[in-house]
Amino acid sequence: MKAARIGSIVGLGALLALPLVTPAYFLHLLIQILLWGFIYTAWSTMGRFGLVSLGHGAFMGVGAYVPALLWNYFDVTPWLGIPLGIVLSALLGVIIGYPCFRLKVVGHYFALVTLALGQVVLLSIVAARDITGGSLGMTPRSIGHSWYALQFPDKAYFYVIALMVWLGGLRVTVISAALTALGGALFGQYLMYLNPETVSGIGVSLQIVFAAIAGGMYAMLGPTVGALLTIALTEGLRVWFGTNFVGAANTIYGILLILFVVFMPRGILGWLETARRPRATPAPAE
What is the pLDDT of residues 79-104, one digit of tens each? Predict the structure, then answer.
């Protein structure tokens, strides 16, 4: 037990020291892996109870846009805007979830309801183009290094924030929608650019489902492994195809999701855990 505790402390120390030795580009990827890993973990809290949501892009979109809009138009610090976005996402989850459970809308019907929710939020963001920038996206007003605005040109700050949030997501069970909204808010604050296609809608929801299932939603680190896989896949496709095949990521996500569900339903970590188990040797014939 003492060795495991020492190993955890050493591992945490190594994670905290990464910004000191990691090039900026790879630190950028690590931050995204941690934030997406947190979001995928949030989705898996529902998946473990057999609730398949295809609309978590809605919660992420609300979480990302609310603090950005409050900051740009009312100068409200993200420290207040992010909790408000979380509350609104949780309220949206209640508005959708309560009637579904009251009317016993479960299984693939529940998945379809959440799928529609994600598209409604996406279309609402696009429709409010005068405020949100529509499909062209929006950029939160930048004021440089500021704790008040939660803006840091030095990626090391956001790496530590993302690491703490990721670790918190592994230890607690909170409303899945609220966790996703928090991840979306920090993702928007980090990138300093919001687009409805990248933080909301069917594409984002599909990415969340694929990553959680691919990594192993029943394993604590499974969604994070899924985040590592999706970030590597996204960056690889971006370099490989460039602008020649814009829809490559979502197409491959869909194909891989089918393959994982059919052949590896417990994900990568679940498969590794099964492979490590010693197989029972047949009893010798008498």
Answer: 999 999 999 998 998 888 888 888 88
- Does the pLDDT of residue 173 top 70, yes or no? no
In a domain, residue 52? The reply is yes
* H helices present in 172-266, as ranges: 176-191, 196-199, 201-215, 222-241, 248-263
Scan for tokens 């959708």, then name that residue. 96
For the record, the structure tokens of 96 come out as 């959708």
**Residue 56: in which H helix or E strand, if any?**
helix 56-74
Position 286 pLDDT exceeds 60: no
Q: Does residue 121 lie in a domain region?
A: yes
> For 17-31, what is each residue's pLDDT tens digit?
888 888 998 999 999
Percent of all residues in the chain with a pLDDT value above 70, rounded to a whole number: 90
Rounded CA-CA distance 17/246 in Å is 36
- What pTM, to 2 d.p., does this model score? 0.82
Asked if residue 258 is part of any domain, the answer here is: no
Distance CA 151, CA 194 (A): 15
User: For the chain, what is the domain count?
Assistant: 1
In angstroms, the CA 81 to CA 38 distance is 19
Q: Kindly state the tokens that stand for 49.
A: 């109870």
Assign 172 to helix, strand or coil.
coil
**What is d(CA 75, CA 148) in angstroms, rounded to the nearest whole number?**
10
The verdict on residue 261 lying in a domain is no
Helix (H) or strand (E) holding 121: helix 107-127
Range of the domain at 144: 22-198
Q: Which two tokens stand for residue 138?
A: 């929006």
